[in-house]
Amino acid sequence: YPSEFLMQKITEDNQIPVHLHVSVSLQYVARLKGYALVEFFHGNIAEVENEELRHLMWSSVLFYKTPNLEVMACVLLSTKAIYFVLDDSFIHADEHQSDFWNKENSDCENSSFHLSCCFVLKLNDLQSVNVGLFDQYFRITGHSANHIVTCLTRDSYNTHTFIQQLMAVLSLLARTPSPEPVDKDFYSEFGSKTTGKMENYELIHSSRVKFIYPNEEEIGDLAFLVAEKMDALTNLQSLNILLYVLAFQVNHVEGSAQNTSLLQPKTLILTSSDLFLFDEDYISYPLPEFAKEPPKRDKYQLVDGRRIRDLDRVLMGYQTYPQALTFVFDDVQNQDLMQNLTLDHFGE
């Protein structure tokens, strides 16, 4: 440790998504390569001398305590913990959550010293990992509300790679083994006798951390919700969800010094007849065990919906990844004809 393969891998992964703005302190981290990155980890982040850095990933993150604030983070996975290196601006963005963060170093604000805060989730405190639909995001759950984080990778490859690395690291933990399970048939394993409803597919790792994946019913529930938002004439049997992707809606800021674009996270759902934009709650569902009341908002809130037959043309930008799409609808009832979307997951 560190191996040449690891050096090459974390150097390649140390790339901030081009469309997201980060602070000077995180830009400094993104410029580090190879051994300098490992030395930075051990000198500034690692809590134990003998822990090893295994994986690096840049991702937007959401915290359970601040569900409306998406922030960019450098996610570092070691053999002891998961570290989220965050913008210092995150501390000041939500003042009523100030007890969530330790503000000892706030006197550094006015100096040339660029501060980042680091959120640490020890692997021993990890209880479950919920993988979102089509691997667009995943939620890591610890033992309290302070220990729930969602990583919005918007990329199935990044999600899959992180989950694989996490499983490998968890295998190194020395935990007392669980008692041997009693043999069960398929229906008693995954079904609930009281409701007859299938539960989400669970994989219990040898470290006793649960990895929970969505099942087909989640897509069925989503299709039903989408059908409710559509015309009453819609036949649910003929409704198919063709695409579910976490994207950004682009709002151009007029009159600013630079022609900047404000990116608003949205869930894009395409059916055989309609195109929908939803505000989705990525952090509160499924409900954590310690939650005493349901979340204040629904999991999906409809922002906009247009019929495909009203779609006049689709304009494709020629810039590199991520690709920008503009959907132009021929909709007389709605004066806002231009719908700007930047897809962060637009590949082959």
From TrEMBL:
Classification of source organism: Eukaryota, Metazoa, Chordata, Craniata, Vertebrata
Keyword Cytoplasm: yes
Top-level taxon: Eukaryota
PANTHER family, sorted: PLECKSTRIN HOMOLOGY DOMAIN-CONTAINING FAMILY M MEMBER 2
Record keywords, A-Z: Cytoplasm
Transmembrane segments: none
Residues spanning the signal sequence: none
Gene Ontology CC annotations of this record: endosome membrane
UniProt protein name: NISCH protein
Pfam families named among the record's database cross-references: PH_NISCH_C, PH_PLEKHM2
InterPro entries for the chain: PH_domain-containing_M2, PH_NISCH_C, PH_PLEKHM2
PLEKHM2 PH domain mapped to chain residues: 114-178
GO MF annotations in UniProt: kinesin binding
Gene: Nisch_1
GO annotation terms (biological process): Golgi organization; lysosome localization; regulation of protein localization
Subcellular compartments: Cytoplasm
All residue ranges annotated as the Nischarin C-terminal PH domain in the record: 241-347
